[in-house]
Design brief:
Keywords: Dioxygenase, Oxidoreductase, Signal. By secondary structure, the protein is mainly β. The chain has one helix at about 1-15; strands at about 45-50, 55-60, 65-70, 75-80, 85-90, 95-100, 100-105, 110-115, 120-125. About 10% of the residues lie in helices and about 45% in strands.
Length: about 130
């Protein structure tokens, strides 16, 4: 678990300095820090996009579902910050993920999910 958390931290840091192509939009989301070295991000949705990856801050209500889809060409880190997610990969592999846990998988696999309670997630997509 420590290795995964360290990799996630390194990956998130690398995203701030490199690039990720967005499948649906080539738009780059620039993070302006002004005169400060850092910035607290509180936005929902895509909070960072460049040529190397995308970071998504997602919020789900109890009972919400995520439709089946994939992210071919990316490695994913699906982190539950608050709540719980029941993730299914390739329609057969089930992963109940609780707050503080991270599911890693290759984006070639199809994902769908349901959220039995109010849930906050951070999803990092890293270009292969």
């Amino acid at each position: 678990m420590k290795k995964v958390l360290s990799l996630l931290a390194i990956t998130t840091f690398a995203l701030a300095h490199q690039a990720i192509a967005q499948e649906s939009s080539p738009t780059t989301v620039k993070i302006e820090t002004g005169t400060q070295a850092g910035k607290v991000l509180t936005e929902k949705g895509r909070v960072f996009v460049n040529q190397s990856g995308t970071v998504v801050h997602g919020f789900f209500k109890a009972g919400d579902k995520m439709k089946r889809h994939n992210h071919d060409g990316y490695e994913l880190f699906f982190t539950v910050l608050k709540g719980k997610a029941n993730i299914v990969l390739d329609d057969k592999e089930t992963h109940p993920i609780n707050a503080g846990e991270i599911l890693y998988f290759n984006g070639k696999h199809f994902i769908n999910a349901d959220f039995p309670e109010e849930t906050e997630v951070l999803i990092s997509l890293i270009k292969e």
